[in-house]
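Recall from the previous lesson that a structure prediction takes nothing but the amino acid sequence as input. Here we apply that procedure to ATP-dependent RNA helicase DeaD from Dasania phycosphaerae. The sequence below is the only information supplied.
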Amino acid sequence: MSSPETTSFSDLALSAPVLKAIQSVGYEQPSPIQAASIPHLLNGEDLLGVAQTGTGKTAAFALPLLSNIDVKTKAPQVLVLAPTRELAIQVAEAFKSYASQMKGFQVLPIYGGQDMRGQLKQLERGPQVVVGTPGRVMDHLRRGSLKLDALKCVVLDEADEMLRMGFIDDVEWILEHTPEQRQVALFSATMPGPIKKVADTYLRNPKEVRIASATQTGSHIKQSYLIVNGFERKLDAITRILEAQDFDAMIIFVRTKTATAELAEKLEARGYSASALNGDMNQQLRERTINRLKNKQLDIVVATDVAARGIDVERVSHVLNFDIPYDSEAYVHRIGRTGRAGRDGSAILFVAPREKRLLFSIEKNTRQKIEPMELPSGKEVSSRRVEQFKQLLTDTLESQPNLDYFFEILSEYSAEHDRSAEDIACALAYLHQLERPLEVKDSPKGRKEKGFTVVEENRQSRSGDSDQMMRYRIELGRDQQVGPGDIVGAIMNETDLHKNDIGHIKLHGDHSTVDLPLNLPKELISKLKTLTVRNLPINISEVGPAKREQRQPGKRKSAPGAHNKAPRKKPRKAKKD
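The prediction returns the following tokens.
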């Protein structure tokens, strides 16, 4: 199903406070899934949304549900189920941002590994929105600390991921303990049989929204990413990249209109020819800015997705994603601004540590690997600055200016102070470079400077290389109805480990083993020791270096998290209050 094209959020019947919050952060136009979903959710209809991660679906359900929230009612009215702690926090923060103009609004993320006493205290205050992982939501429902009497809507976010992680039975248990008269929105990238069954069972006459993503990126565009967080740290990283790489013209993409002006001003202050391009500019000013870029009167344009549509400037050699797009399709359109007319192009993506899921989603949807890049070193930047300084001297001398007056001054100084011409030249060079030093040094570690650390990742999957893995024992196994999906889900839900970090899992009667990367940080080991699976402590302990698994001929090795477990019983249904 598709919806009529909308040009702005104001075309949708969102509440005034929500619309004001959207405008204050500078969002310009709803994404396809937002335009298609918001009207149905505003009308109280159940919704089945099929869309990849990174299509803007959080706003697709958060904006209309917030518009229907009664802030005077201090009780959960919206319950969002998310597969991981990371996603629960991200969704909760999105709700908080979109509700910035709603006085008295509260949102609470709840997940395992977090202090239960703190969650109980927060629940007593009556948040209108609760975002949680299935296991912790079940804990609170059993305790009676999470009451759903005033619940209006349940959102299942990334339902197929919850299925893959072994949570689908828990999701069904939770749905059975919600009021009969409630709205349900289910979002999933795919629609496997068990998810379709959930939709058929718990959704009433749902409206269906399917969003197809553009997946083609130019093969002649070099794609790379850098892990960096925060506006100032990103600004420092841009400066190093601009200094160390040859570029003709660049488009820098940000999410909001306000960010275009702020970043353009910062770059201009650092000596670059930059200008903002956003939806607040009239067509005449927009065309003038693009023409300046074409005519080499401007080198950098800082733009939003909407404002940059239709830009076709051959000299754009680089696209830099200052903010990672939520929409994979937007990423494809962004990097398509470079590599025009068959030329080579470069696309750089800034990724905050907590945005790695969006990075993996873009790679999956575009079917292309984005390579990690290193921030140019101080030595590289110094080399470029010295080259430019020498070229400045050469250009000045070759232009043959009249230097007689300056020669007399310096000859006089040399005689008065007994200083050589070389000493005087060095002093003048030193004075010239005070504001932009020729020598740029890294910290002792070489990667940390001006308050930001560049994380250099090895993005290759480590799950298949036993030489880099450590084996751990978990005191739960088939006797406790535990399967690989439960173990993978618990680890991913409560730590920053990715599924590629989780190696071979072997189930036994009273215990299991799992292979994890070598040299895990102490903090992460401590976190692993607090994990529970099916409300039972895992009591994890180190066994030793992982041994390479020998596969028998004709037998396939199960992928991590595959559902190759013995049938498990559904959780016993608690009586409804």
